Predict the structure.
Amino acid sequence: MVPTKWLLNISRNCCKWRPPQKQKKILSQEEYSSFINSLPVIIDKGVQQTKYLENDELRDRMKRITEYYMRGRKTIQGELTILGHELLESEKIKGDLKNQQYVLAWCVELLMSYILILDDIEDGATFRNGKPCWHMLADVGSLAGNDASMLRSFIMQLLHINFSSQLFVDFAKLFNEAFFTCNVGQYLDAITSKQRNYKNFTMDLYKNIALYKYAYYSVKFPILSALVLSKNYNKDTCRYVDDILTDVGIWSQINNDFTDYYDDDEQTGKTGSDIQAGKCTWLAVTALQRCSPAQREEFYAHYGSWQPDHVARIRDIYQQLGIVGIYYREEKATYDRIIKKIESLPANALPSAEFFKTVVDAYYPNVACGKAFNRNN
């Protein structure tokens, strides 16, 4: 039998693959190193001050859970939290406030680890970031769900021991909204794939899944967290964040879908499987909007299959429809719409227009630098 990976590589090469956009560096190297090196100290302090972790075995397991999915993973949301807070504060952040900033950023990252544990269980994934998924470890297995629950509680414990009572209450509300939103998104994503009714794959359905599954957490949540820490969280600031960064978050999910299309372990942390799993992705919806009747029937017959030749046929349909060129044209059009929204903000808006441009440019480096790909490619 011909190896699946070999066939998929042939398909990718035939489709004239381009690397997807890489995000602009968010923090300086010095700031980044300081942030990364703070994790063991913060975690150790947290486990030592948690009364329920009463012996070395429990403390060691909690440390393993918190650190496992951090290794080899980009810390974009944590870095965005730091960047947002730095931009919102008028003076240089240092001392206790700097420590709180790092704690908050790591709590934002740990929320992603919690989601990844559950996501890997639901998807039946075996590897992530070049190592076995948490639930595949010999001493984990069926305990993975409980470990995820422990991690969620530990996040709240870190917030509790590092912030004032009022800030903790504010963060508890915000983090609970993030947990709930991500869980709803996971459900919508899973049930849509399970139903395999590709006739219902519409852009409205896709954007609804993307909004809950990723858009809230990926961009809005770090900035909302920074607003709480800087004591600028209110109705107006939340409205501006929602209006502008929801679009950025949805595009971030589209970029994730596009990266999965490349089947790139280095970029995504795990082998791409959206086609095989029958996911409602931007590529699938966009293709169905443009398919001929014959292509549509072929899509229905082959999408959601793990057979290598079926996956290759879906990729071939994407190539025939020029999905890569469509992606980059949409990238530019979406960026232009977002910038237009930013430029229409009131002069005294908080966060400011410059704040939003800095955040948005981190997600659209190709367009922001004037290096968008040729629209005809």
